Amino acid sequence: MARSSALRYYIITRLLLAPLMLWTITTVVFLLLRATPGDPIDALLGPRAPEAVKDSLRQQLGLDAPLIVQYLRYLRDLFSFDLGTSVASQGQTVWEIIGDHFPATVELTLCGMLVAASVGLTVGAIAAAKPNSPLDAGGRLFGIITYAVPMYWFGMLLQLLFAVQLRWFPIGTRFPLSGTPPAGPTGLYLLDSVLMGRPDLFVTTLHHLALPSLTLGILISGVFERIVRVNLKQTLRADYVEAARARGIPEWRIVTAHALKNALIPVVTVLGLTFASLLGGAVLTEVTFSWPGLANRLYEAIAQRDYPVVQGLMVFFAMIVALVSIAIDLLNAYVDPRIRY
Questions:
Q1: Is the pLDDT of residue 24 over 80?
Q2: SS3 per-residue string spanning 288-332
Q3: Cα R_g (the chain), whole angstroms
Q4: What are phi and psi of 82, to 5 degrees?
Q5: Residue 38, class by beta-carbon neighbours within 10 Å (0-12 exposed, 13-18 middle, 19+ buried)?
Q6: What is the DSSP string of 152-201?
Q7: What sign for the dihedral angle of Cα 61, 63, 65, 66?
Q8: Using the 8-state DSSP alphabet, how is residue 85 labeled?
Q9: pLDDT digits (tens, 9 = 90+) for 191-241
């Protein structure tokens, strides 16, 4: 009964803190954009445009109002779920931009996380199963290198090797410019090609996904490797593991069937949070591979000083991170009986 009440209190607390976190993020983004040097009107019209034209556009966009007035209008629009309208894209709303570009980011993130989880869990489990061995040292070195290597440099290295030299993969983009991409309800080319029954489109999409997914997945896999290695080492020293060894159970079965399950509890938390952050943080990968995702669109909006798009996309990404964080915390609190709040 006490645990049920504590869990209920924790759920209510997390739900109440989420709006506060979103308000803080949106306020910081609003202020930072306006504190950054440069004028969005100059970015749109150029510095040589007539001042009368600049003043007219500034008034039309509401940028001539005092800062507090702009902020209150901004909050009013957010409460009505209006993320704004692009200044540089001829009236395209932020929700339309999300609909056009978000599926590409989701597809890249899913494939990258699949690579990261597969590589990280495998390397971490092998390193933990052989403590103080060359395999353990190699696992630690792998985690350090993948954490330290710049993502854009690693992406360009893969492009140079596999796209330019060997010509095994395309150098960038999501689909050949001369081809017609899958047209389906989800916007995820892999899934839509399956729904259309077009294996040729599936293979083409996967061909273009390979290098960006490997870049994102391999560099993220080091995070999972370190968590799995540390937690699995601790689990392998537990009493029930020693009891299993005393019963003559093979070591590989102890690792895979007993210890690894308990060691994966913190990995689930990191997996969810990493996935949520990558949905908005894969900017370098998308820019390097000319990937038409939402992070790349955010980069373009920042370069154009498109205030509404930058603000709207940051709010959207913050909402995803907040929702995923709450879901993971609640899942851990419900599943893991050792957690007490």
A1: yes
A2: HCCCCCHHHHHHHHHHHCCHHHHHHHHHHHHHHHHHHHHHHHHHH
A3: 24
A4: -100, 105
A5: exposed
A6: HHHHHHHIIIIIIIS--S-SS-SS-TTS-----SS--HHHHHHHTT-HHH
A7: positive
A8: B
A9: 988 888 888 889 999 999 999 998 888 888 888 888 878 777 777 777 776
Amino acid at 150: P
Locate the domains of the chain by residue range: 101-335
Report the candidate in 320, 132, 302 with the shortest Cα–Cα distance to residue 233.
132
Strand partners, 85: 93
Per the rule left: phi > 0, alpha: psi between -120 and 50, beta: everything else, 173 is left
DSSP state of 257: I
d(CA 270, CA 156): 27
Q: Name the pLDDT band for 341 (thresholds 50, 70, 90).
A: very low
- Assign 1 to helix, strand or coil: coil
DSSP-assigned letter for residue 249 = -
Nearest to 230 by CA among 124, 121, 308: 124
**Nearest of 338, 310, 299, 305 to residue 46 by alpha carbon:** 305
In sequence order, what are the beta bridge partners of 93?
Answer: 85
CA-wise closest residue to 103 among 234, 292, 232, 275: 292
Summarize pLDDT for 73-115 with one digit per residue, the tens.
888 888 888 888 887 776 788 899 998 888 998 899 889 888 9
Please, are residues 151 and 215 in contact by the beta-carbon 8 Å criterion? Answer: yes
The Cα angle at residue 332 between residues 280 and 340, in degrees rounded to 5: 130
Q: Which fold has domain 101-335?
A: MetI-like fold (1.10.3720)
CA distance 38 to 32: 12
